[in-house]
Structures are given as C-alpha cells and as structure tokens.
Design goal:
heterodimer, A: mainly alpha, two-stranded antiparallel sheet, 4 helices, B: alpha/beta, Rossmann fold, 6-stranded mixed β-sheet, 3-stranded antiparallel β-sheet, 10 strands, 57% helix
C-alpha cells in the first residue's frame, strides 16, 4: 500500500469517528465521509483540491513522525 | 480617529461561522479605539460602496465568500473589478476564498496599501473551528494590537498555522491539520509580498521601476509609451531621409511617426483622466 492509499484510508477512518462534523471548502459543505469519498473519487471538479490535499499530506507523512504515526494508526497499518 | 469598515455577510452555514469569527475582530478594533462601521447579515452593495467612498483611509475587513475577481454577499458580487478602485489607499484584510488571486492583484495595482487574502478556497472543519478562527484572525490582531508590519504579520500567521496544524495532528485531526497548512500556503499579503508577475512585460516593468511603480503601470500606459517611442523614432528617421531626398515617394514617414506620437499622447491623456475620475 502506498502513502496516498494509507492517507485515504486514514481519512476514511477519521470520518467514521466524526459522523456529525463537517468540512467546508469555500462555500461547499461536506461531511467527513463525503470528503473522504471526494478524495478517493478525485474527479475533474475537485482535482486541484485533491492534489493539494494529498501533496501536503504526503509531505507531512514523510517529514512529520507524529502525522505518520497517526495516519498509520488510523489506517490500521501499525 | 482610526476607522474600520467591517463587512461580514451571513446567509449560509459557512458564513455563520465566519460571521462569528468576525465578531472577535470587531471587538478588538473597538477596544483599540477604532470607529467601526459594520455591515453584516444582508449587506447592501451601495451602502458599502458609499462607506468606502466616504472613509477613504479606513481599514477594510471582509469575512465571507469570495472568488478570483470578487468578494460576495447574499445577492452576488459586493466588491469586484468594477469597484475595486474603492480599495485604493487603504489596508484590506479578507478572510475569503480565492480573492487574492485576481481581485487582490487589481486592488494592489489600483493603489491599495495592503491586501491580505487567500489564493485558493479557505477551508475549515467544524470540529476544529476555533483553531481556524485563531488562524484567520491572527494577522489582523498582530497588525492592530502590536503594530507589526504586514510582512511580519504574514510570517507570524504562517508560523502559527504550522503550530496549530501540529497541535491538531497530535490530537488525531489529520484532515484539519492538512487543511490548516493548505490555508497557510495560500495566504498572501500584497505589500508584505507583492504579487508574482506572470506577464513578461510586467516583470520587465517591475525590474525597471521597482515593485510599487512596476505593478501599478497600466497596459494602456505601456502601449502609449511604445507608440510614442516608435512614432518619435519613425518621425526623426524619416525627417532626415526626406531632408536628404525631398522628392522621395511616398514621402509620408514623418507624418506617420508624428501620428503615432499624437496617438500615444492621447492614450496617456485618457489614462490620466480615467485615473483622476476614479480618485
């Protein structure tokens, strides 16, 4: 499993823990679960957002041990 | 007396949050002795425009939706390229999506002293709303409370975002942590750091005349200067050619050059008059 897949899995796990919380991207409103789906789907309309999100997350994964630990734990890969 | 115009429309779930964030800023401004003109809820474009026209140096604060070329209220565009000149001569602090991408650049070109904004959509999560609020308001707090330069405010706000992201990540909020960093990466302050020029001619102008002047030269001015130079060159060249050979055919190069000079001159006058009209 590559880093991006681990991150996507961790976001899905975080979404399960926060069923009532929302993510706002500008005027667009998502539940965490919808946001996780959006990241996974990566369609044309959200391409830039997904790319930005994943590139920051991958960088954090490589440089920030705490982030890596959290992602691995949420993704169930520890 | 110091004045501030704070606009915080409130008409959907996202603006409910940003409106609440703006209350902290209003309280801060009042506590620092500012006279605050507030426009919140259902905002009227004409009222905001007349407030901006009346209070020429007032700090402008905006919390809500934005797009590349405008700041939005419930009815549509509140500030856009047609009234961006109203931001000239003042500091502008916006917590809105995308507006720094084009509107901020145009505001800077129109003479806005500083434009604080984001080049992508501002994102936040409801479970970490207080952290995003802290980040969103921090730059203005530093500026108003501590009198720091916009450059310092920008650097400190980005530092704060990193600290908040670390905190969020340590609490297991990985989405919020990543979005916080994304917001910080998209935060700019023109004057803290002038816009990055994409146009090669603009880059030359910035190199030749410096950031302040180079960014504020209009395309029309550049074209008129080019025409003026071309016309003058043609006129001088043809004047000497025609002096040497008075019977040359066609003998009108001098007049073509002279016409270009006149057109260039008219363009400069037009530019000057439109600037004076917008003042």
């Amino acid at each position: 499993m590559n880093i991006e897949e681990l991150i996507l899995r961790a976001v899905e796990a975080e979404a399960k823990l926060k069923p009532n919380e929302k993510v706002f991207i500008g005027a667009r409103e998502y539940t965490y679960a919808e946001f996780a789906k959006l990241l996974k789907k990566n369609d044309r309309s959200s391409k830039k957002l997904v790319e930005d999100f994943l590139s920051i997350a991958v960088k954090l994964f490589k440089e920030n041990d705490d982030f890596k630990k959290r992602v691995l734990s949420l993704a169930g890969a520890t | 007396m110091m004045k501030a115009i704070v606009v915080a429309p409130r008409f959907d779930t996202a603006t409910e949050y940003t409106y609440q964030w703006s209350r902290e800023v209003v309280d801060l401004l009042k506590s620092m002795g500012y006279t605050v003109l507030e426009f919140s809820g259902r905002v009227d474009r004409r009222e905001v425009e007349s407030a901006l026209a009346e209070h020429r140096e007032a700090l402008f604060v905006f919390y809500d939706h934005g797009s590349e070329d405008s700041l939005w209220a419930h009815f549509g565009k509140l500030i856009d390229l047609s009234n961006v000149h109203l931001l000239a001569g003042r500091d502008c602090y916006t917590v809105a999506c995308l507006s720094a991408k084009r509107l901020g650049v145009e505001a800077y070109k129109a003479g806005c002293r500083a434009y604080w904004g984001y080049t992508i959509e501002f994102a936040f999560t409801t479970d970490a709303a207080d952290y995003f609020k802290e980040f969103a308001n921090y730059g203005l707090k530093l500026r108003v409370k501590e009198g720091r330069s916009w450059r310092e405010c920008l650097d400190k706000a980005k530092q704060l975002a990193r600290q908040l992201a670390t905190k969020l990540i340590s609490m297991g909020n990985i989405v919020a942590g990543v979005l916080m960093i994304r917001n910080a990466d998209a935060l700019v302050c023109y004057d803290g750091e002038p816009p990055e020029a994409k146009c090669p001619f603009r880059r030359v102008a910035v190199k030749l005349f410096g950031k302040k002047v180079g960014w504020r030269l209009s395309r029309l001015f550049a074209c008129s200067t080019l025409l003026f130079g071309l016309g003058l060159g043609t006129a001088i060249h043809d004047f000497f050619v025609e002096c040497a050979d008075p019977l040359r055919f066609p003998p009108h190069g001098f007049w073509i050059g002279a016409c270009l000079v006149v057109i260039g001159h008219l363009m400069v006058i037009h530019e000057l008059l439109s600037r004076l009209r917008s003042c």
